[in-house]
Amino acid sequence: MTPARRLGTAAHLAAGLGVLGAAGYAFVAVVGHVFHGPADAGALSALISLYMLVNIIGPGVFAALEQETSRAVSSAAARGEPLRPVARRAAVLALWSFAALVAVVLVAWPLVLGRVLEWRPGLFVALLVAIAGSGAVYWTRGLLGGQQRFTAYARTLYVEGAVRLLPCLALLAFALDEPAGYGFAFAVGSAVAALSVWPAVKLPATDVTTSPPGMGRSLLWLVGAIALSQLVANLAPVVVTYRLPDDLVAAAVFGSTFVLARVPLFLFAPVQAVLLPQVTRAAAMGRHDELTSRLWQVLGLVAGLGVVGVAGCVWLGPWAAEQLFNTAYRPSVGTLALLGAATLVMMLALVVQPTLLALARQRTVTIGWMAGSVVFLVVLVVGPEPISAALVAQLVGPLVVLAVLLVGVLRALRLPAAGVGASPATGRR
């Protein structure tokens, strides 16, 4: 892929993610306008918590499925192996993941989840719908990304965003104030997106029926890593809401501000989607020099985008939170600066991750997120003031992750390259 084509592909994916991101922010903005004031603070906090939980539970597991499917498809294509057995194995893993997530949600409902969602059965069902849709759309994106078919990949983003956005605007236009309606409008987008590109999924027939080795084990490591990354990225507002039952207005303002500071992550996502299949092919061919140069190039690009994002948070953040999300009061510049810096560190850690995956170092990735998550949770839960603790935890946790991943990738790149023909499970650490 030429540099111009890579730039065009990234721009196309960025536009799709822009639509999807706008739908998420529109959801928060719409519910902020519909459910405002002390009487509706509980419903607003529950809907924002649903938004966060969908980003933790669904993509937290199924983004791992997408990345492992993309890696396995890219590696099989580089080795001239058939793709259909990879797709079939990934579909089975998606079904098992869905079943496990449903079991976890059922257990968590009476323990803590019910309180977070205000014991609203409609929001509980919406969460299950979102999980099922996520399984379908992330499996599809893994197949498309691994084949570098990014036009169809981007189409799933456009459709998912549109299907989330339009129903919310319709509910707002009809002045409906039922929280479950907004929850379902947000939840169904993923399933519709997967259905929209199903005819475009092309898997040549093959006589090979043997499943590729190592996908299940790799997925388990990745599920742990990405679930923890989503937890670090999204859990803070949920915990703040849980710890501030007597000040839901402050919790809602923090939740809206937190969502606003995540805007740069949507600019980063297409970089990761394009980077993973390319570095996987380079690793399969034994081209470590290419891996090293591409890693430093992308780190520089992401660092530049992140600095712009932090500046945007500081300059426009307080106004945007009040005017776009209808917060009860303006968040402080310091709060937005810390959240913006935390987002930058998250982006840097996530851009190192694909290189480790390409080098079959899934375990190193998981260890990094485990270490960062432990630090994050300790600070988040033990800190005496919930919002201050959340701000500190959101920065120090990702810093620990970034340090571990950088050490891991530098060590892996110093080892001899395996080259074409090596087993994809070889060298996994």
Automatic annotation (TrEMBL):
GO cellular component: plasma membrane
Record-linked InterPro entries: Poly_Biosynth_Transport
Organism: Pseudonocardia cypriaca
Keywords attached to this entry: Cell membrane, Membrane, Transmembrane, Transmembrane helix
Residues spanning the membrane: 12-35, 41-65, 86-109, 121-140, 152-174, 180-198, 219-242, 248-277, 298-321, 333-352, 364-383, 389-410
The protein's name: O-antigen/teichoic acid export membrane protein
Domain of life: Bacteria
Membrane topology category: Multi-pass membrane protein
Location relative to the cell: Cell membrane
